[in-house]
TrEMBL record:
Zn(2+) 2 binds at residues 103, 133. Pathway: Carbohydrate degradation; glycolysis; D-glyceraldehyde 3-phosphate and glycerone phosphate from D-glucose: step 4/4. GO terms for biological process: fructose 1,6-bisphosphate metabolic process; glycolytic process. This is Fructose-bisphosphate aldolase. It comes from Caldanaerovirga acetigignens.
Amino acid sequence: PLVTSKEMFKKAYEGGYAIGAFNVNNMEIIQGIVEAAKEERAPLILQVSAGARKYAKPVYLKKLVEAAAQDSGLPIVLHLDHGEDFEICKACIDDGFTSVMIDGSRLPFEENIALTKRVVEYAHERGVMVEGELGRLAGVEDNVKVNEREATFTDPDQAVEFVERTGVDSLAIAIGTSHGAYKFKGEPYLDFERLKKITEKLPGFPLVLHGASSVLSDYVEMCNKYGGDIPGAKGVPEEMLRKAATMGICKINIDTDLRLAVTAVLRKYLAENPAEFDPRKYLGEARNAVKKVVQHKIRNVLGCSGKI
Ligand code: G3H
Ligand code: 13P
Ligand code: ZN
């Protein structure tokens, strides 16, 4: 069944582990993720971006996720990733999502609060959970310099005020991660001091880490070996994610690692099997790779194996 994240987050917080929130765009990705979660008996969030809805059409993704929940028997949260306005959040809530993100992080503080509050009111009347975001993730390729951290990373006092005034159920914070495959130019750095302050000021409150792919080197190398060109890709080290999971981070967002795995395996399969043209062969390989990555995350990064 589709479930809300409320109990999941409570257990994760208390247990010092995180739940994986994986972006989905098609059937193979959904099936790979869900097979892994089923084998691991792991709680699961499947999330859909505006781009995913545009690519696959909302109704297809909704029905595929419903099919996955029905077929696996797993409790699954269906979440909107980076909703940018009230309308897309409303559309997803009306469509049966159990959780939505309203991402007002680009807006001035007061406007972010006003927008988030409006979504929370609509969502909560319908039993749907809301994730807000405060602070700005670095864009692909721009390394946040030390003196810029104050301006872009989440301010702990503002986080408290934001949570109190909006009534959000969880909060995405900026502590040094970024979206995509190029997260750090030099040494990876996350501001754990800041995370600690936020957790101390908001005890028991679930925090969310976006941009949390590790950019697994096996798959980057496989891509590059079979004709890809993604030099210098770098993600968040796994031990940093494990640490974050013990410090109030209850939801860890992963998209890039799945994209890389799919692409790497496709490149390899097609290069090694030039006569093959049955999509089920190579998409089946991609599905297996997604499953493998998610299983690895659940066991070795998130710590949520056996938690349902
Ligand atoms: O945060 C972004 C996610 O990786 C989704 O990406 O907007 O290209 O679907 P997308
Ligand atoms: P990655 O690009 O690190 O996978 O982050 C995904 C994300 O935050 C989706 O919201
Ligand atoms: Zn994100």
